[in-house]
Amino acid sequence: MNTRSKGNIGENVACKFLVGRGFSILTRNYAKNWGELDIVAIKDKVIHFFEVKSVTFDFSKSRFSHKAEDNVHGFKVRQIRRMVETFMSDTNMGMSSEFNFHVLCVYLNMGTRLARVKWIKNVIL
User: Least packed by Cβ within 10 Å: which of 8, 20, 38, 103?
Assistant: First the structure.
């Protein structure tokens, strides 16, 4: 399975996860030349930005290729910060609006078609 396909499946799982917890999805894959926001959602008048990282995982062997959150490194965080600023400006929300940034790690078992989600809340940009 290629990286984009795995990413799409992970984002679909993440959206279902968030909707099940009362979030409304505003947009997915908000992109500019300098970056992308995977999911932008709202709950209780607070905007939430989600970076989704997906990896394949064999639950029966408790092994995975690597930790999904390891892919959110310094460069990626700077890119996301710039994208948050762009989104807030483009939508006329302004940087004074309340928002949070989170990472959703989606562990996919393609054999059983099961997934687990790890939510790392309120990451500082």
Answer: 20
- The domains of the chain are located at 3-120
**How do residues 90-105 score in pLDDT, each as one tens digit?**
999 877 889 999 999 9
Distance CA 72, CA 80 (A): 10
Architecture per CATH, domain 3-120, reads as: 3-Layer(aba) Sandwich (3.40)
Which SS3 state, helix, strand or coil, does residue 66 take? coil
Q: How many CA atoms lie within 13 A of 96 on its CB side?
A: 1
Point out the residues of the chain with pLDDT beneath 50. none
pLDDT of the residue at 63: 57
